[in-house]
Amino acid sequence: MKPPIIENPRGATRTQRYGQGLLTAVFWVILVLLLRPLLTLGAWLVGGHLLFQTLGQSGGLSGIFRVPFVYLLVVALIGVVLIGWATYNLLRFRNNERRTRQPDPVTAAQLAGFFGVAEAKVRHWQGSRRIVMSHDELGRPGEG
């Protein structure tokens, strides 16, 4: 069975594909950097005898307790920045609703013109309770 998500990489431009690949790589690097403390802990568990040497080099237990404190401090600072930004936007746009007009509904004729099918077929699709669609190589719809 095919997945229900339409994936057509040929429909994207080269810039979009490379940009998506670059963005994916950046987030994988960020994920690995975030998981680095867990990887270090796993390495400590595998080489437990090195734990005592590491404790001696980092100032003993006080060095170990300093790291979570720094993490908590960074998380708190990020939280303060995000709450500040949300408060700023709330105050700035409090009584300023720019979306006053609802868009006009799309008619069956407009849908038929967009998809290149007969208007009667669109009306049949809209009146159906359940419909299975298939698409050709160019992405045009048809009943499956």
UniProtKB/TrEMBL annotation:
<protein>
    <submittedName>
        <fullName>Poly-beta-1,6-N-acetyl-D-glucosamine biosynthesis protein PgaD</fullName>
    </submittedName>
</protein>
<dbReference type="InterPro" id="IPR023829">
    <property type="entry name" value="PGA_PgaD"/>
</dbReference>
<keyword id="KW-1133">Transmembrane helix</keyword>
<keyword id="KW-0472">Membrane</keyword>
<dbReference type="Pfam" id="PF13994">
    <property type="entry name" value="PgaD"/>
</dbReference>
<feature type="transmembrane region" description="Helical">
    <location>
        <begin position="67"/>
        <end position="91"/>
    </location>
</feature>
<keyword id="KW-0812">Transmembrane</keyword>
<feature type="transmembrane region" description="Helical">
    <location>
        <begin position="21"/>
        <end position="47"/>
    </location>
</feature>
